[in-house]
Amino acid sequence: MKRKRTSKKKVFLWSFIVLFLLGAGIVSGYGAYLTDKAKQATTSSQLELKRGDMSKKRDEIVDPYQDNISILFLGVDDSEKRDYDSNARSDAMVLATLNEEEKSIKLVSIPRDSYAYIPQMDKMDKITHAHAYGGVDYAVSTVENLFDVPVDYYVRLNFNAFVETVDTLGGIEFDVPFDMTEKNSDDQHGAIQLEEGQQDITGEEALALARSRQYDSDQARGKRQMEILQSIFDEASDMKSVTKYGSLIDSIGNNMKTNMSFDEMSALHNYVLNRNISFETMQLDGEGTYINDLYYFKVYDDSLASIQNELQTHLDLTQPNDTIDEKNKKDSSYAKKSSSEKEEDKDY
User: Fold this and answer.
1) What 8-state DSSP symbol labels residue 115?
2) Closest by CA position to 105, among listed 213, 203, 226
3) Contact, 2 vs 199, CB < 8 A?
4) Distance (Å, rounded) from C-alpha 189 to C-alpha 7?
5) Residue 143: which region, alpha, beta or left (left: phi > 0; alpha: psi -120 to 50)?
6) Could you give the count of Cα atoms lying within 13 Å of 92 in the half-sphere of its Cβ?
7) The model's pTM
8) Residues 6+ apart with CB under 8 A from 318
9) Which of 48, 96, 109, 144 has the least CB density, counted as fewest CB within 10 Å?
């Protein structure tokens, strides 16, 4: 029987542990050591987007110290068994917008099977396939097209980082919603077995819970992923975990790619430290459907439009959001572009 623990006081998203640790400020008696490790980890993780430093949806490069910004978090399984021409599918996608003045954060969980337009491929497909087709460049442009907002930064983490983070923390407390039997990260069938109820879970168990697709819906899966990631931050934010930050930074640095510099990550430290921070999670509504005998998650137009508007407003973008009909016309017009115009888009 696994021991029970009292719940912690904070909730947040695991992805922001990355920014908190790598962009951390001073932790008494430990800050200089962590800062040096974080700088090294961030430097070794740099992978710029082909478009350059600025989204085509921006008029100028953003400064995270004073501007509202957006970050796309990608969770991928890049093991040999699931690799697709060196670009794994993105198994988890979360778009975050950060409002500097309000010190508020909005997070959108994007179902991996969402039926979305991939500009570089000039076709509709599952959004998870964007990364498989063309890595972070395709994933970023697809998300920008879906929500009609700029994606300023990305953080790409593989599942080794997820497992190692949970295990380094000594496990996390989680209320398992159902009895389950799943594969582990090595694809061993039945290796993970959990019973319903509140308990401590390991990294492999947390990963199995986050990835499982056979027990509930795509939307429930996205909500479950959010809850697991929040539980990880609960544990990491406990002061007794401070001595583990060095190992956590090493694990994250070894399993991460990003276009954020250490200085840019450091700008986000104030969001984590702000006790009055406003934090909101959102999820696309839709329904499963089959197109040419393949399963997709068809996002409802009104749900997409609502979240588009929320993100636009949160980023304080002056250009009004396109309607769904106008957006569809834009997507259709792409197919009519000349070959040279399409090649220019692909460079992005």
Assistant:
1) E
2) 226
3) yes
4) 32
5) alpha
6) 30
7) 0.79
8) none
9) 48
Strands 153-158 and 69-76: parallel
Report which of 206, 209, 204, 207 is spatially closest to residue 179, judged by C-alpha positions. Answer: 209
Largest CA distance in the chain: 64
Per-residue pLDDT tens over the stretch 280-292: 888 899 999 999 9
From residue 333, how far is each of 125, 143, 247 by CA, in Å?
Answer: 17, 18, 50
Write the CB contacts of 333 (distance below 8 Å, at least 6 apart in sequence). none
DSSP letters spanning 155-184: EEEEHHHHHHHHHHTT-EEEEE-S-EEE--
How, if at all, do strands 172-176 and 90-99 pair?
A: unpaired
Q: pLDDT digits over 137-176, tens only? A: 999 999 999 999 999 999 998 878 788 889 988 999 999 9
Domains observed in the chain: 14-347 (3.40.630.190)
Gyration radius (Cα) of the chain, Å: 20
Q: How many whole angstroms separate alpha carbon 147 and alpha carbon 312?
A: 9
Phi, psi of 198 (to 5 degrees): -70, 130
Distance separating alpha carbons of residues 80 and 222, to the nearest angstrom: 25
